[in-house]
């Protein structure tokens, strides 16, 4: 019996080895070498010593924070509303549906919408508003990023709120709590796990949204992803590119620690 | 559980069969190696009819693959997965490939049509005596604008780009050397400058240009200019030719003073298997009529002097695409900067992209 169990584990461990462990080790390894292949700590010294990369890191974190915050503000009421509906699975499906469409395709669609002659500007034209430059602004970048991340926030929130027994709310109200009190003392704390996994699912990918910074931000919005691409494709300084990769991995670990399950235990 | 074991055995069998299949396939293509010509070129950078013509004339089968950046091409040739017989790197990349011993020395006796190339485009600094390369197309870096919104007089020099009226209007091509080059050229400095003081001055000057940047993108400029999302851009002449075909309001100008002069060149990588075919192909492309046909299709400037007479006068008399020899003398070809300065240019460019006032 035991023999088969180990057999079943083979694909999983192979996967772990080749697609999780090996890449991470390689990225960390590369980050300690310079362009001529000598061991060095200079990549890290430059990263933390130059204002440029720190500013870029700050930019990335700031944009990722804004994206996460806006998605959360939109998703929470949406998810809450969805749990109250009759055919919730259908409504949820409709929210998930756009994720079936290729990301690039959606980004290009937004280029059409935000263009000077695009849909949004002609719509504003009806109200006598002159065409505005919408593309290549923080505004359009945030809108598109939020749009793309929205389903990944709504799903965990929906699941968390769905698990919440209605009797808890009834009990809270019976005992004289107002709606606001019920929300902050009962509903929100119990859905915190959903919030945490939603934040993880949105914040981490948002740190390196490099394709959107180019297509929608026109490279006027710069995040660490842009720098990684440059180091690997143009200057071919893989060491420095890998260093940024390591910093991103560490940032993600930190986010995971802050939003991890362990903390959720302390109600 | 028995099922599982047979499933595993089945998978292993299939893997084994597939492996044998690839070995067999590789050997079978290897046998006809002499008849296949592997070309590695930029996307949409040859008239497909010429490939058919070449195949008919010589009996070779052409295998055409494309790349989208010099660096990507370099990586693939270095890895050596496919042995390409022809590649089309730009000037500075030839220098780099030469240094890394990736190119085959050309035997000029096998290229009689080389005489058709304009002497002013031969023996250039990036490849003296054309030991390794033959120019394919050339062009410049300049400004393209829409005459509905601007006049030619607004874009006489690079300094005109700093005009406050252009705030948030200009699209720049996404390249460190091009963007830094605008700063250097506007101060009359070399585009290949390795002088830190010059670079710092260019950087400080370019900071004031960033508010005018609407976006820093690459291929998308073509669409944005053609559909008038943007009305002025800094781009390469070849790209400009493409845009002007789609929108007749667009005009290309080369600002006074220095600018980048670029060349894409045919080379034979050292790993080539069909060298004879590669020579035949280069010679075929150097034929005046073929070169003219290709030029009309691509829209870039041809270095083939003999081909000019087969081209419409409207193309060859256009000073923006075929500038005078005196004008060309003022322009500069990019040199391989070496890793240290390549990184410095890119770092400054990255900082400029981030800079906001």
Order of helices and strands of chain A: HHHHHHHHHHHHHH
| CA-based shape of chain A | globular
Average pLDDT score of chain A? 88
Work out the helicity level of chain A: over 70%
Order of helices and strands of chain B: HEHEHEHEEHHEHEHEEHHHHH
What does the largest sheet of chain A look like? Answer: none
What is the second-level CATH architecture of the largest domain in chain B?
3-Layer(aba) Sandwich
Content of β-strand of chain B: 15-25%
Distance between the termini of chain A: 42 Å
**CATH-wise, what's the superfamily of the domain at 59-234 in chain A?**
MetI-like
Main location (chain B): periplasm
InterPro entries (chain B): SBP (IPR006059), Sperm_putr-bd (IPR001188)
Keywords (chain B): Periplasm, Signal, Transport
Subcellular location (chain B): Periplasm
What does this molecule look like?
The complex is a heterodimer of chains A (267) and B (357). Chain A has 267 residues and is mainly α. The C terminus of chain A is likely disordered. In chain A, 76% of the residues lie in helices and 0% in strands. The two termini of chain A are 42 Å apart. Chain A has a domain of 176 residues: MetI-like (MetI-like fold), CATH 1.10.3720. Chain B is α/β, with parallel strands linked by helices and 357 residues long. Chain B has 2 domains: 188 residues, 3-Layer(aba) Sandwich (D-Maltodextrin-Binding Protein, domain 2); 146 residues, D-Maltodextrin-Binding Protein, domain 2 (3-Layer(aba) Sandwich), CATH 3.40.190. Chain B is 42% helix and 15% strand. Chain B is built from 13 helices and 9 strands. In chain B, the strands form 2 sheets. In chain B, strands 4, 5, 6, 7, 8 and 9 form a 6-stranded mixed beta sheet that branches. In chain B, strands 2-1-3 form a 3-stranded parallel beta sheet. In chain B, helix 5 packs across helix 13. Chain B is globular and about 75 Å long. Chain B starts with a helix and ends with a helix. The mean pLDDT of chain B is 91. At the A-B interface, helix 3 and helix 12 of A face strand 6 and helix 13 of B. Chain A: Its main location: membrane. Chain A: Belongs to the binding-protein-dependent transport system permease family. CysTW subfamily. Chain A: It is found in: Cell membrane. Chain A: This is 2-aminoethylphosphonate ABC transporter, permease protein. Chain A: It is a multi-pass membrane protein.
